[in-house]
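Me: I'm a chemist; would you kindly supply a protein sequence with its structure tokens?

Assistant:
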Amino acid sequence: MSSEEFEKLQEIYKSLYEELKLMPDRAPTCNAEERKRLLRTFDERHGEADEVLQGMEEELRAAPSSYRNLMSTKLRMYRRDLNKLQRDMKSSTTGFGLSSSTVEGSHHGIYSSQNQQSTHLQSQRALLLQGTDSLNNASLSIERSQRIAAETEHIGNDIIEELGGQREQLDRTRNRLVDTGENLSRSRKVLRAMSRRLVTNKLLLGVIILMELAILGAVIYLKFFRR
């Protein structure tokens, strides 16, 4: 997250630098009063830019090692450009009716304003960092919630798959029971048919035995008792 904060501060610095770099060229065309205001504005913006660079240095120390070389190079370049602008502004305002006492008095007032601006920037930066921390915490909370939701979904899918497998097993068991029931029905029909045939065979056998006994009795009667 440090690299993202560094980029935000970098955009703020670039905006300040674009405003600062126009001032040295404007100074020679201004009258004394305008040059005083321009110098005051320059020092205020220069102080803001310096504060932003200090914030970037802090982010550099907290940044991952893979980003530090590029960030350090940019910081050195921004420091060099800012110092050059300060020298250019000093040379532009020298010799245009600004006495040393006037410039010193102006700088004294500007430094007081710069300190106030620095305090304001630090307060804004603290709020920005606090907001960034809150955003990071919210992002982590969302990531945890998404991870828990994904795990819950995975568990739910596993349960659904398991229930699907159990349903298939129950369907197969039910089909086997149906087949078993049909086989038992056919077996009962066969047994009933066999039972009827057995009873029929027993009756026929009884009838045949009775007929044979009757024939045997008739033969004995005719042979021994009827002369």
Q: What stands out?
A: Residues 97-111 have pLDDT under 50 and may be disordered. The two ends are 139 Å apart (CA to CA). The domain at 2-141 is CATH 1.20.58.400 (Methane Monooxygenase Hydroxylase; Chain G, domain 1). The CA atoms of residues 209 and 215 lie 10 Å apart.
